[in-house]
Each structure stands twice: as C-alpha cells, then as structure tokens.
Amino acid sequence: MDIGPVIAKRYRIKREIGSGGMGVVWLAHDEHLGRDVALKTMNTPPGLTQDQRTRDAERFRREARAAARLDHTGIATVYDLGEERGTRFLVMQYVTGIDLEDRIAEQEQLSIEEAASIGVQIASVLASVHVRDVVHRDLKGRNVIIRTDGVVKVLDFGVAAFLEPGTARLTTTGERPGSLECMAPEQILGKPIDQRTDLYALGCLLHKMLTGEPVFEHRSELMLPGLILDHPPIPLRDLRPDAPEGLEALVLELLAKTPDDRPPHAGEVWRRLAPWLPERGDPATALTPWAEVDPLRPFRHPMGPEARPVRSWARRPRPGQPS
C-alpha cells in the first residue's frame, strides 16, 4: 500500500510497528506538534463498489468518533482521523512499553501480585468502556501494553462493537473479529456478544499470566474452536498450586462457556482481584530510580511523582555539580 511518506501534510511515516487483518499500524511523527504518534491505516476489501466504499467510509468515521469519546487512563487517546489517497487512517497516542505477551514470555509465570495489578487495570478499562456500550472483542496479550511506569494500556479498539442502538459497525455480516486464543464461545458460534465476552478474554489473560500457558492450545489451530466450545479449562491450582482458591474460582467463572455464568460486569472482577494488589509502599521509595517495567508501581505509589529510569537520573547533575 503506497500511502506516501507524509500523511495529511503533517504525519511523517517512520516505520511499521504492527499489522493485522484490519490494517497496518505505523510509527509516525506529527510535524505540527512535534510528537510521535501511532497511525493506523485501514484495509479496504477488494471488489467493493463506489457506493460500498462510501458507506464503509461513513461507518469508519462514525465509529472512530465514538472511539475518540472513550476517556480513560488505560486507553490510548484518539487524535485524528482522515483519508489519504483512498486509504482511511486513524491517529492515536503512541504508547511505549512491553506488551503482555512478551512480559509473560520473559517471566514464564507472573507473581500473584503482578497478575492482579495488571488484571485490575484491564478490568478498570473494560468497566469504563462497557458502561458506554462498547465491547472490545479482541482483548489479547498483544493489545495490552505495560508502560515502564507500570501503567497498563489497552490498545486497538479497531474491531470494537458499539452496542448502542443505531450505531453502524465497521465489520460486515459473517465476520468474526477477534483472536482465537482469547475468543469466547459465543464469538466462535456467531451469537450475539455483550460485555461478558470481554470478561472471558480477561479470564484467558489471567490464566496465561499465572500459568504461562494459554487456556487451550493445539498443534492445529483448526482444533481450537472445538476445545473452547466443549472442553472445560484446567483449574488454575492444578497448574499453579500456590494460587489462592478465590483467584482460581474467579478465573474459572470468567472462562464459563455461557455468559450468564460469568461475573456480571468488570467492576465485580475488579473487586474480586483487589485483595491481591500490593500494599502501599514507603513514599521515599517512589523517588528511587527504576530500571525495569513494574506493574505494581501504580498501587504502591498511587499519584506518585513521575518515575524516571536509571539512565535519566544518571544524566542529572548532583548537588554541587555544574549543570
């Protein structure tokens, strides 16, 4: 796709940073405001008539504007949308950090406190969007970024379902958005979805954070739908004996095959995860330079001063030294 080196006379493309079925994400530089942004270009299915392209463009505009109204610390802010050379694009906050999939690969299993800290932040995001009748539909490890200050960001609401009556959707009839590893049974069956569909995906993420393994896996991806629909998940404590019973019960409820058997809303998940959050830390340690990602920090030092990595502190002059 030739979109040119500069989009809308302000966004200079630097490099590709991600891709999927719905489009490509680029790191770009906003030359008007002097900051890096994430610019997502949307794929256009081949063979569409001009009327279909016009309708799709209108749907894209309406859903992008709806996504821009989402307001939460854990959501990447939408800055702009438009069209360049027939390609629709969306400009969002560029979030740096490590994605949850890589964090799990690095650690193999996350501590109970870390899994709770990440899970609570995801639940907070979901509670905020669900109350606005939005369902993410593609919650997975690659769409969860842990910043170096420990703040968790949920990305890519590009396939989100807007449940508000009268809101058009980007996806067409028969599409099944989402990633199979975290896909709820009702998505696989093409049944109606609601907020509890995202809670199933959160259960998949909690299970993988705590065990290092997906809920279901098979050498052939074609076998996964049958496992998700028909097989019970392995209880958490069978794989992680030190996991609390209450945490195991919560994960199993989130992974229920039927939405009615899952927790009713993300706020309930937040409440049940909260007991395993870390305790408040000594305020003095909030100023200690850090070297690694720390998802516990937002809870140990809520509203603490902006954290700085060791390399940043090393550049600062010490008292008595010339600046």
UniProtKB/TrEMBL annotation:
Record-linked Pfam families: Pkinase
Top-tier EC class: transferase
Segments of this protein annotated with the region Disordered: 295-323
Superkingdom of origin: Bacteria
InterPro entries in alphabetical order: Kinase-like_dom_sf (IPR011009), Prot_kinase_dom (IPR000719), Protein_kinase_ATP_BS (IPR017441), Ser/Thr_kinase_AS (IPR008271)
Keyword Nucleotide-binding: yes
Compositionally biased spans, kind Basic residues: 313-323
PANTHER family in the record: MITOGEN-ACTIVATED PROTEIN KINASE KINASE KINASE 20-RELATED, SERINE_THREONINE-PROTEIN KINASE NEKL-3
Protein name: non-specific serine/threonine protein kinase
Natural source organism: Streptomyces canarius
Taxonomic lineage: Bacteria, Bacillati, Actinomycetota, Actinomycetes, Kitasatosporales
